[in-house]
Amino acid sequence: MPQITFITADGTHRTVDARNGDSVMQTAIKNGIPGIDADCGGACACATCHVYVDESWKDRVNKVGDMEASMLDFAQVVLPNSRLSCQLQVVEALDGLVVAIPESQH
Amino acid sequence: MVETSINSFQAPGTVIIGAGHAGGSVAAFLRQNGYVGSITLIGEESLEPYQRPPLSKAWLKGEANEEGLRLRRAEFYIENRIQLYLNTRVDAIDRSARLVCMADGKTVNYDNLILATGARARTAPFEGTSLPVVLELRTATDAEKLKLALKQGARVVIVGGGYVGLEVAASARALGAEVVVVEREARPLARVACSQLSSFFLRYHSQRGVTFRLGRSVQSVQMLDGAARVCLDDGEQLPADLVLVGVGAVPNEELARHAGLPCDDGVLVDLTARTDDPNIYAIGDCTRRPLPLYNRKVRLESVPNALEQAKQAAASICNLPAPRPETPWFWSDQFDVKLQIAGLPMDVAEIVIRGDPNEDKFAVFHVSADRRIQAVEAVNAVPEFMMGRQLIGARTEIDVERLRNPSISMKEIAI
Predict the structure, then answer these.
(1) How far is it, in rounded angstroms, from Cα B172 to Cα B166?
(2) Across-strand partners of A24?
(3) Which of B149, B165, B239, B390 is the most exposed, fewest CB within 10 Å of its CB?
(4) Boundaries of each 2Fe-2S ferredoxin-type domain copy (chain A) (predicted)?
């Protein structure tokens, strides 16, 4: 079972078990990680599950889709490692993934 | 667990009635805020808090399972000391004793009570609604019944051309069913979207095999030799293997009303989600809430609204500053179309269409007399939605001519 570490806006690290097939966003919600709102539940419609993927993992997660890129273009404080966590699928190879959560999703 | 008082061993804390998206989320937000009191979450359904939006889409098409619908892991409630009572109906609230009475006779005391009772499907005003072929869609149980009946070649009649009706129509077509939508108004989405959007969805659905009967109402559903017939007001009879009624929702406000809390098509709350009683909050679909952006009280049926009010209540209970107000927004997925709506089309002086509806990619902006965007309805138009939502919230004055010109970036339309 892959483990994912979330770094919340206040710097707290929380490592949780993730389920293959879930998204990183679902993993956060299911574990009550603060700062990921996921208003749309994973429909790539709201950009309230914005995360920063740790640099060492940036090239190992699945690529940004057109819709996601378009949403991210208008999100707050976007960085080169910004992703919508609803579009990051959990697979075994992501065991150890680290993502940071921005201060605000709105 | 079979105590007379389920919280007899602990001090009264927060009791949440309704274990849907709003109720489940407020429990989690309270713990995120460091709330240490007891939390009791009471729900009528048998499933832990889950997401409803996929029920008309991914769930029907078999792309989501029960595990995928659940909002939290089962252990989450134990780890966070949230007492979860499922299959449990609440009968009454005794405000003077700060007591909630359940249908099975058990009671629980509260310091703070949160009503998250949601809304229920509006009953259709025709004969035959209790026949087994007539279904509604609100809960996972409803969705499961619908899924079992939606087979290749099944004849589906959908009563009501709102979001639920159109989303199910799209899912049913994807599964190979034959679909007729009966809508009382002259256009689909009449109550919830502008006419340009209605025209677009009418064309898009029609081109994908959905048939419409507009301006028609259902008089009855009848069984004839074991087969159902949907009888319309013009005499037409539509054969049906399945009838789905989606004619809106009504707030579950009876508990509040019987407890003497003011209601007006929704439990009335303030910007901290508090009702008239300082110890009772209400959140989500069951409420009518102030929306300062539009200087009105509205009842919103959406997940973002449920989450916003859950945060308001959790902040208030924990004596934290009120969260920043949000711009209401909605979305709908039908076939491969992504519809995103921000704001509400109120106090509109002008409608601006950006893009071409015939290219399946456009946005309808509702602009006020003082050139503020009041609402945007975006079809496959993410920049228009995302930027529009920000401009609505900030009440930014915009240049209408630039807005009208899709070759100018959405980032360059503010004045």
Answers:
(1) 10
(2) none
(3) B239
(4) 2-105
Which residue's structure tokens are 């069984």? B223
- Listed by number, the residues of chain B in 286-315 with a beta carbon closer than 8 Å to a beta carbon of chain A are 303-304, 307
Cross-strand pairs, B242: B156
Distance between CA atoms of residues B392 and B374, nearest Å: 6
* pTM of the predicted protein model: 0.94
Q: Which residues of B touch A34 (CB under 8 A)?
A: 32
* Min Cα separation A87/chain B (Å): 15
Helix (H, G, I), strand (E, B) or coil at B410: helix
Phi, psi of B121 (to 5 degrees): -65, 135
CA neighbor of B368 nearest in space, from B340, B391, B385, B339: B391
Nearest to B376 by CA among B361, B389, B360, B357: B389
**Beta strands of B193-269 (E only): which ranges?**
210-214, 218-224, 227-232, 237-240, 242-245, 249-251, 267-268
8 Å CB contact between B376 and B388: yes
Q: How far apart are CA B189 and CA B197, in angstroms?
A: 8
Architecture of domain A3-100: Roll (3.10)
Tokens representing B22 are 């709003």
Of A31, A43, A106, the CB nearest to B326: A106
Alpha-carbon separation of residue B294 from A15, B146, B177, B329, B368 (angstroms): 42, 38, 42, 14, 11
Contact A30 B67 (CB under 8 A): no
What pLDDT was estimated at residue B2?
A: 40
Tell me the β-bridge partners of A82: A52
CA atoms within 13 A on the CB side of A80: 5
Contact present, A86 and B304 (Cβ < 8 Å): no
Helices and strands, number each (H, E), in chain B: 10, 25
Residues 6+ apart with CB under 8 A from B73: A30, A31
Please list the rounded mean pLDDT of every run of 10 residues in chain B (415 residues).
Answer: 45 93 97 95 96 90 86 93 96 97 94 98 93 95 94 95 96 96 97 94 98 97 93 97 96 98 98 98 98 96 96 97 93 95 96 96 98 97 95 96 96 93
d(CA B394, CA B389): 9
- 3-state class percentages of chain A: helix first, strand second, coil last, to nearest 5: 20, 20, 55
Cβ A48 vs Cβ A96: under 8 Å: no
- B140 vs B159: CA distance, rounded Å: 20
Please report which helix (H) or strand (E) contains residue B163, including its range.
Answer: helix B163-174
Task: Tell me which residue has tokens 């009303």.
Answer: B257
Q: Cβ contacts (< 8 Å) between A74 and chain B: which residues?
A: 382-383, 386-387, 390, 410
